[in-house]
Amino acid sequence: MxxxxxxxxxxxxxxxxxxxxxxxxxxxxxLIRSKNTLNTFMMVIASxxxxxxxxxxxxxxxxxxGGAGGFIGGLDNAFLNGVSLEPLEGQTIPEVVFFAFQAxxxxxxxxxxxxxxxxxxxxxxxxxxxxxxxxxxxAVMAHWGFGGGWLTELGTLDFAxxxxxxxxxxxxxxxxxLVVGARKDYGRQAILPHNTVLVLLGAGLLWFxxxxxxxxxxxxxxxxxxxxxxxTLLTPATAVLMWFILDxxxxxxxxxVGAATAIIVGCVAITPAGPFVSPGWAMLLGALAAxxxxxxxxxxxxxxxxxxxxxxxxxxxxxxxxxxxxxxxFAQATWGGTDGLLYGNPELLLHQFxxxxxxxxxxxxxxxxxxxxxxxxxxxxxxxxxxxxxLDIVEHGEEAYVSGEGAILVTGDGDPRLEEAVKx
Length: 424
Hints:
Elements: H1 4-31, H2 37-64, H3 95-114, H4 123-146, H5 150-154, H6 162-180, H7 196-215, H8 223-251, H9 256-273, H10 279-303, H11 312-330, H12 346-377, H13 384-389, H14 391-396, H15 416-423
Helix pairs in contact: 1-2, 1-3, 1-7, 2-3, 2-4, 3-4, 3-6, 4-6, 4-12, 6-11, 6-12, 7-8, 7-9, 8-9, 8-10, 9-10, 9-11, 10-11, 11-12
């Protein structure tokens, strides 16, 4: 039967998760140069509207329809056929509320991937990519992770999206960064965040929304949701403290961008583990997860030419992978999951390990192929001239920060701003 309290909480959690998408927009917009601020935020908004639409048409059905153990769901719920106010099977909330809750997940995840290719991907190409990716990558991986698919049947534990959301976005971002390529100035001059206050505000709002993301995944007022809620407070806190230590040891400076990244790393790491580990282990998870993510970012920025602008791979892919493996070691049946290796069950670690191989491989390969196919049909990235001017003007005819002379709405060969930017 429908429980009004459970329903009210999941509806509130849906709103909290929805807020996370504009929070991502603030985070990514602050990390890039001011001339691309509006375009970056628009890519996030586009991700939301495109992904929610595809989710209603076919994505939800592919993720949650079909028998147990499969690779992908069926089409019985396409166009929300059969999705009604009746209770979700085995739950106390209407299925239509569950649909809405999950819709905010795919919207957020699609927006996360955009962080790897902002400042150089064409807006029209991204729209097509977002539509296809939300169906061919996210919906499939959601079926695996918590839609009754083969990983669920195997016995893999993933409470709130370590497979489709975190590893899905992180390793798709790597593929996108490689296919689209680095920004034209990357590696030749310092490309600094234009507004670190926006970065911190975005990260803070993400942490706020994550209480709905993880707490709401219990689908009611229950022990699983409560423990996931508490652990979502603790894990990011210890991740930030560890990041402070690492930053200080390296350069004697504790950075705002580092703090924002660490908040996300902690939230991501606890996402799959939610109610499966005790609060004490959750605190350890945050501290430990920060280390490989911090090391990877240092290595990427100093030793490679991979231009993952928002560090999506580190903050989501690697942190999510670490959280999945942590479950295999430290999960406890007394906290609502299955005992892990530390409590006498090595089989769970094997199941978690299989997920950390399959999910990154699928996300990377399918995203790579998808972008190559789109690139064969239409240009993926802006020209060097357009990059020099900034995609706010080129793609939208507007600016986030209008100069004293007003915005130039149309660019062309005679545009003085274009000529000045190309000279620069």
